[in-house]
Amino acid sequence: MPRENPFKELTSTVAVVGSGPAGCYLAQALLKSAPNLEITMFDQLPTPYGLVRFGIAPDHQGTKGVERQFARLFEKQGVRFAGGVRVGYDCTLEQLRERSDAVVVATGMHADAGLNIPGIDLPGVYGAGRITRLLNGHPLEGDGLEGDGIESLGEFVSVIGMGNVAIDLVRLLAKEETDFEGSDVIDEVHQELAKDVREINVISRSAPRDSKFDPVMVAELLELQGVAHTVHTAGELPETGAADAADAPELHPREAVVRQLIDHEATGEARVEVHWWFETTPVRLEGADRAELLVVEHDGAEHTLETDSLLTAIGFLGTPEQSLIEVSEDARATGRIEPGLYVTGWLRTGPRGALPDQRSQARELAERILEDVLDASNRGVKAAGLGDLEFPEATSYQDWQAIDEFERASAQPGRVRKKITTTQGFTDVIETHRDMQR
What we know:
Blueprint: E1 13-17, H1 21-33, E2 38-43, H2 51-54, H3 61-64, H4 66-75, E3 80-83, H5 93-99, E4 102-105, E5 111-112, E6 125-127, H6 128-136, H7 139-145, E7 156-160, H8 164-174, H9 187-194, E8 199-203, H10 215-221, E9 227-232, H11 253-263, E10 272-277, E11 280-286, E12 293-298, E13 301-306, E14 309-312, E15 316-317, H12 320-323, H13 329-334, E16 336-338, E17 341-343, H14 346-349, H15 355-378, H16 397-409, H17 423-437
Helix pairs in contact: 1-15, 8-10, 10-11, 16-17
């Protein structure tokens, strides 16, 4: 006999700060057990979905397709979206807590972790997150570019790190315009950043087996025409294809794909050469007025790599403005800051884990939140709700639908949408939409 759901009659108020995948997965998990909750999702941007829209590579539309699943929250399950609201500025976290039975902070980590080597402050050093946001049309990056333009990364690009974010950068910079069929890349940004790129050096402190990339991500690079690969390892990779198959060593999947890189022959003349440096440590960045040379240590010797731009892809950090709260070790373990206040996503765990990990974390935390809310309800404690908090400038989900329709209608051939990339651009579309509704 199925266990009775103790949460199904709850009508409590829940505020979720952040509408990226962590927040959306949590709302899904809460509503599955408690379909009558009143959930409002706040976001500092006028659009929902956070990392899905601005962090996943623009040529990975299959992964971005999770937006269609999240849309059901707003279209079918009654979740309210309040975009363009900066919690901590437009209202305080305490104001939300006073009016909600549970507040969940899901603001993520967006600041690029820095690399501590001499010369890292030279012009020409960029964080991977910033480059990805530019290619994805993040309005806070777009606003900053107005009047300044975008600079070419130059002929020689060095990427520090070899996780999936780093592999995304290599692939995006190595692609030609025709390789972006079916994407929503900001073409003018890509064309300017990548127009001169001829050589990319990717640097990992680890051996191939111990590196952080998904082998499928690296294999995707082998499909690009005009891209050559050279692998630098301190030790020899095991050979495959022994005469006696029983004697052939079994390669780790990452070693196997690196072996494919070694054996790969570029189709046609190589436009871009990618050098994979394993067991290599960045030592210093040199240059007069900007980055010129990256010195690395590999196999007991120093090597000097021409470097017009250095991209760091070594992780992300939260900022006080993004995080709103301090997360203790206990909170990292449970997701509960205290009854009524919770944390989820990267802000809880640190910047690791793919979307399925976020979903699993959300299910576990939702159970804890609902138990706390039910306990409070049984004691006669219930918040008044968010009705008296007014945000006249907030964007609604209907505003987002107008933005979505406008972007899709504006798409150039071969692209799924032409993204709006500035705050003013969003404002113009929203005002036009609202005028038509009057």
